[in-house]
Amino acid sequence: MDYGKHHKINKRINRFMKQKGFKQCRSDINIYVQTKEGQVVYLVLYVNNLSIFNKSFDEVKKVKLALLKEFEMKDLGEIGFYLRI
Question: Are strands 31-36 and 39-46 parallel, antiparallel or unpaired?
């Protein structure tokens, strides 16, 4: 993927995440955090992958559905392991 196309996609994702109430992490621009009603949702972008973290599957599902409506993407299911940790 060329830099120009990658930059446009990042701007679009950033705008969408902010509209949904997420804040971009200052220390890592690929991490978004949303806090509402005592729940914290983390969204992490890594190259062309996206991971959503929260204690509640319902919250993860809400974010996932919003993303699927806005972007062409494929749900690969739950993470079996993360960075082999």
Answer: antiparallel
Q: Are 32 and 25 in contact (CB under 8 A)?
A: yes
CA distances from 6 to 9, 27, 48, 73, 80 (A): 5, 20, 10, 15, 27
pTM: 0.80
Round to whole Å and give the CA distance between 8 and 14: 10
In tens, the pLDDT along 30-56 reads 999 999 888 899 999 887 788 899 998
Fold of 3-70: TATA-Binding Protein (3.30.310)
